[in-house]
């Protein structure tokens, strides 16, 4: 019963959790399932087949950690670089974004690892 609309999560070693995939490597699940992913995770939505419907709900979940992460001045600077790079990438300024992403990985390797870079 292939009707399209799969979400393909591009490998970041799948964050050590195996996903069920088809022969082309696309995530497959029961139609009643929900897929959760962070914005930083590379993914794409496949075309929905004729006569099928795919619902997408996007939301933000706000929380505060008991033990804050990445609080050093270098981490703060790296996060600011990451945010700017994200905006540039969304605006199509990919070369400038790539430069900032590379700079961010040098400023805070730990934060870069957290974002899968």
UniProtKB/TrEMBL annotation:
GO molecular function: transferase activity
Keyword Transferase: yes
Source organism, top-level taxon: Eukaryota
UniProt entry keywords in alphabetical sequence: Transferase
Entry keyword Transferase: yes
Protein's name in the database: Dolichyl-di-phosphooligosaccharide-protein glycotransferase, putative
Organism for this UniProt entry: Eimeria maxima
Lineage: Eukaryota, Sar, Alveolata, Apicomplexa, Conoidasida
């Amino acid at each position: 019963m292939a009707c399209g609309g799969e979400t393909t999560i591009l490998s970041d070693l799948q964050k050590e959790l195996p996903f069920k995939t088809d022969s082309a490597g696309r995530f497959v699940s029961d139609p009643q399932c929900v897929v959760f992913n962070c914005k930083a995770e590379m993914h794409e939505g496949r075309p929905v087949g004729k006569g099928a419907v795919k619902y997408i709900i996007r939301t933000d979940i706000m929380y505060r950690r008991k033990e804050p992460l990445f609080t050093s001045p270098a981490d703060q600077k790296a996060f600011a670089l990451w945010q700017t790079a994200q905006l540039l990438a969304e605006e199509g300024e990919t070369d400038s974004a790539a430069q900032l992403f590379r700079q961010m990985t040098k400023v805070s390797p730990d934060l870069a690892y957290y974002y899968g870079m």
